[in-house]
Write a structure and sequence with these properties.
The protein is about 35% helix and about 10% strand. By secondary structure, the chain is an alpha/beta fold. Strands 5-4-3-6-7 form a five-stranded mixed sheet. The protein has a two-stranded antiparallel sheet with strand order 1-2.
Length: about 290
């Protein structure tokens, strides 16, 4: 049986007080048998057995099952979706699939897919029985360190989550249990060969570690830009535009062949005008250099 952290009567451990104690011990054969025929629901509400997501009779399969938090917490899936694609995973030496399971209501799934741009199939386990039997627990503890995949501050992420909930309209209360945390389980031929259970609400496996687990190259994946960089980018573009505008106003000397045809008196007037327009009597071309 999977070891789980002790919980208080409300079933919640260590709120905001540091990591909870939870084991990354692999589920036993008995654990997997208990969850094999439990249902998960797709976006249309149709039920599938959990076993069908990672195993097919007579077919070797390698499937990473990611248990997320509620359906309004999408930062981790956004990070994964920016690095992994189904095509990249299928080209591995051991072709791999990713399946995502949340614990909200299935009718929120289409909204969640749109918000996260997730290219992987997503299912719902509203009863949380699979979460519980695989040893995932409940907490609101955020941990002491922000993960690398979370590119924004706690405040920004909270605001983003609230906006997601508001945009969901009638699904506002269907995202799932805010306390329930998840984890990642790698199945090969029906057995779990690696797993990680979240110790706080931000404790999903980091992307570089997940790449190593799946056998991808060791190159550091590109990280997404933070929210809030739009202002800096706009200012930078404004400065570049202003610089180009200034450079475009520089006086260009006409070719010598043209200057030779201009009366000497006119050339003196042109030179005097350029000096008058410059600052401190320095010709305009030198002042802007």
């Amino acid at each position: 049986m999977v070891t789980r952290a002790a919980t208080n009567p409300e079933g919640v451990t260590g709120e905001f007080k540091g990591d909870i104690e939870v084991s990354d011990k692999l589920p036993s054969k008995g654990d997997l048998e208990r969850i094999a025929d439990l249902p998960v629901l797709d976006a249309s509400g149709e039920a599938h057995t959990f076993k069908s997501l990672h195993s097919r009779t007579g077919e070797a399969r390698r499937v990473l099952v990611i248990f997320i938090r509620h359906f309004f917490c999408g930062e981790y899936l956004r990070a994964l979706s920016s690095v992994f694609t189904p095509q990249i995973l299928l080209e591995l030496e051991s072709p791999t699939e990713i399946v995502v399971i949340g614990h909200g209501q299935p009718d929120v799934i289409p909204f969640y897919v749109k918000e996260t741009a997730c290219p992987f199939p997503i299912y719902a386990d509203p009863t949380k029985k699979i979460h519980n039997l695989l040893g995932m627990t409940r907490t609101l503890n955020m941990g002491n360190k922000a993960p690398e995949y979370m590119q924004d501050s706690v405040m920004v992420n909270a605001v983003k989550s609230i906006f997601q909930e508001l945009r969901s309209g009638r699904n506002l209360l269907k995202g799932g249990d805010l306390y329930q945390v998840g984890g990642e389980f790698l199945f090969e031929n029906g057995k779990v060969v690696w797993c990680h259970r979240m110790k706080n609400t931000r404790d999903h496996t980091e992307v570089p570690e997940l790449r190593a687990v799946l056998g991808l190259d060791g190159d550091r994946p590109p990280m997404r830009k933070r929210w809030g960089t739009g202002l800096g980018r706009a200012l930078s573009n404004r400065r570049q535009s202003w610089s180009r505008s200034r450079s475009g106003t520089r006086r260009k000397s006409p070719p010598r062949s043209v200057m030779s045809k201009v009366p000497e008196e006119t050339r003196r007037d042109e030179t005097k005008g350029a000096i008058d327009e410059s600052s401190n009597g320095i010709p305009a071309v030198q002042a802007s250099a």
